[in-house]
Amino acid sequence: MNQQTGTDRDRIRELVELLNRAARAYYQEGREIMPNIEYDRLYDELSELEQRTGIVMGNSPTRRVGYEVLSELPKERHESPMLSLDKTKSVEDLKTWLSGREGVLSWKLDGLTVVLTYEGGRLRKAVTRGNGEIGEVITQNAENFENVPLTIPFQGRLILRGEALIRYSDFEKINAEIPDADARYKNPRNLCSGSVRQLDPAVTRQRHVNLMAFALVQAEEDGAPLDFQNSFSRQFQWLSEQGFDVVEYRMVGEDTIEEAVEYFKEAIQKNDFPSDGLVLAYEDIAYGLSLGRTAKFPRNAIAFKWADETAETRLLSVEWSASRTGLINPVAIFEPVELEGTTVSRASVHNLSIVEELKLGLGDRLLVYKANMIIPQIAENLTKSGSLEIPAACPVCGAETEIRKDNDAAYLYCTNPDCPAKKIKAFVLMVSRDALNIDGLSEMTLEKFIAEGFIHEYADLFRLSAHREQIVELEGFGEKSYQNLMEACERARDTELYRVIYGLGIPGIGLANARLLCRAFHNDLSALRKADEEELCQVEGIGAVLAAAWVGYFREERNNRGLDALLSQLRLREADQDQAETGLKEVQAGQETFLVPPELFSGKTFVITGEVEQFPNRRAVQELIEALSGKAAGSVSKKTSYLINNDSMSSSAKNKKARELGIPVITEEEFIDLLRQARQGQEAPAGEQQPSAD
Question: Per the count of CB atoms within 10 A, which of 217, 332, 578, 656 is most buried?
């Protein structure tokens, strides 16, 4: 790789990230991380670098973005068909396959394959893999991937393949915005597939899709192919010089491949992107192509799938878990076994079709494993008794259940619209911190109140005084607890419309979307209720699926009556519209309440150890960190941003490790200072690195 090109490319990425962060802080969070003159200087530097190198990233602030919403994605046949790879789980097979030759070992990424075409230095076309022969054209969406260059230095014709991915960290943030557990995305791959194939590119941009290049299909200039000296790895190096993120790879031979596989096996535990194995290709391009292909597979590369660690166990029971939407999920409970270093005793079975396919029955002998070494799954039922009874009655309310088909899979639902499980989950959301924020109404307390008949609809949350005598007699309650609850309910009456909307639990309408809608309709609830799907889709970030869910919710008269009754108990604050527009988040730490940016801890990892004094427990600190887009880890590593320990001078293993790595050890009070200073717009505390202009 040309050293200067690599340096310029890295500087472009650094400037794009820094300028976007500064713009986000200024326009969305109401704070400055650099003076305007410094922003302008860096912007000019970026513009000059883009012009000189020809590399312009899709998320560059120099780019003016316009979106055209499509009615459908056009189809197109690939110039070069995309075949699947032959697979093995044996390292010995990989050694045999190499036959003494040099190979390139890289991640097998678990996203959505996309083919990019560049002509004259510009991105001209992007097409999904589809069925390998025909894919969908997603050029507008690819232009809105986080890291796809729109222009590159190479002026000829370039075709490459890459994997579109959504990182685990972004996946968790997106899911956190969806209150309904059943509506959340199952894994990053599913979310990525839907994000890449959006009809509205604005939605793609919000999903933070990244692309990793893994194959160069064609690179021609003036009708002649570029010379990569017959080297597969040189193609990767050249793609990197053009501004692409290239999949991580290692050069291997028969004597080094085992060590390389072990390296990747350890690395997958820390990866922020999904991978389901490795790919081994011949470094000698001509040799690989000379081998031709079988009817199904090319012979120049082979996939290595992780040999899943399995354990035999016995099915003890199936837990049928009812949710707010009425869906009843089967969860297999089995005798505890050790897998990949942890003890597991349960695995989701997902739906009735899988129950039937596995032929489950109590007492059956199962083989279980961790998919991608993370998620417990049932690999095989060795007994196949098929004797498991599907509940005819809801496990919560006893009402009749029904089986519904969705995309050829069968699911079990409770038919009772007043099922306590639905009620409990709905009320848990409504009283949560981001909704009405009624302190003291835990899920257990709500369950008691619903069972006693105190609560039937949302408005009843503010009529609990009618049941004072019964409440103070309940186990765990008394006069003091009752008075605290009444005070919390009274405080909750003063709120904002977007919080109420979020608390309704309309599928897909998280806190951010609730804010967007209220802002777009100027807090006019009447207009919001009457809005049709076309009007709703005009709001940036609201697509057809969310619009349909919204219209469907307000089509039900029962929902409208419940909302009207609730609103009669509330005092909506108009003045806090500014808060909604700035996107600030209200959080509590100790005895203080803070209004801070919701992504305050984005990209930061905290480790919490020892006793806490100003929070109920360490779990409460972890939840606060995660609510502000941070990550709470269990052990100190070089990725740790702060170690929280009230005994900062302790000689504990975590403190020692933090000192060795130069990681700040802060007390609980210093952690709260992070919130105070974010609220006051001051500079970050010691240990917080400010962006450098150098």
Answer: 332
